[in-house]
Design goal:
This protein is α+β, with helices and mostly antiparallel strands. Helices cover 30% and strands 29% of the residues. The strands form 2 sheets. The protein has an 8-stranded mixed sheet with strand order 6-3-2-1-9-8-7-10. This is Exocyst complex component 1 like. InterPro entries: Sec3-PIP2_bind. It comes from Seriola lalandi dorsalis.
């Protein structure tokens, strides 16, 4: 489902603006409709964060008719950017409490924007993307507070596919050595 949303938002909102959608998460907002926090990169390498609201049009009844008619609207009318910021303007990302599964976090721009993700996993997903994009495009490390660093920058060998391949090769060679050592070797030569 998220890949379909990604493709649709990319086609409708970001491609016409010459941007590439890098990451998005669903967030909870008080207004009606679905909301997403999106991170995109422009062709000029400017990284933007934006809140996108998806408003689905409701079917309406024509007076005096028993059939329902769907109000025709283009997909472009469904997705609207409600707020936009530059990653350069982001001074701090505050996770509030790293010891509690809290999907809420604070984005510090000129003003502080409270964001509530639908899950803690989504919160860490967007923060990992912001850290990587800040390192790559802004040439500065993103200022983070109150996050569990093991989820931001994993240090286990599972975090790097190259390390996994090397570990798999070592296990394969060790298995071969064990098998060869168990084979009987003729002593009369």
């Amino acid at each position: 489902m998220s890949s379909l949303l990604r493709e649709e938002m990319q086609r409708v909102l970001f491609r016409p603006a010459k941007q590439r959608l890098v990451e998005f998460i669903e967030i909870e907002e008080p207004s009606h409709g679905r909301h997403f926090l999106c991170v995109s990169v422009a062709k000029t390498k400017v990284v933007q964060l934006c809140i996108v609201r998806c408003q689905i049009s409701e079917p309406s009844l024509k007076s005096g008719s028993k059939r329902s008619h769907t109000k025709r609207s283009s997909i472009q009318d469904c997705y609207r950017r409600t707020e936009t910021w530059s990653l350069q303007d982001l001074t701090l990302v505050d996770g509030r409490d790293p010891d509690v599964d809290d999907p809420c976090f604070l984005l510090h721009f000129d003003k502080v924007r409270t964001v509530t993700a639908v899950s803690c996993s989504a919160k860490y997903t967007i923060v990992r993307a912001l850290v990587a994009l800040s390192d790559r495009h802004c040439q500065r490390s993103l200022n983070l507070r109150n996050f569990d660093w093991t989820y931001i920058r994993p240090t286990s060998f599972y975090s790097n596919r190259g390390d996994c391949v090397v570990l798999t090769q070592i296990c394969f060679y060790a298995f071969n050595l064990v098998c060869l050592s168990m084979c009987p070797v003729p002593l009369d030569a």
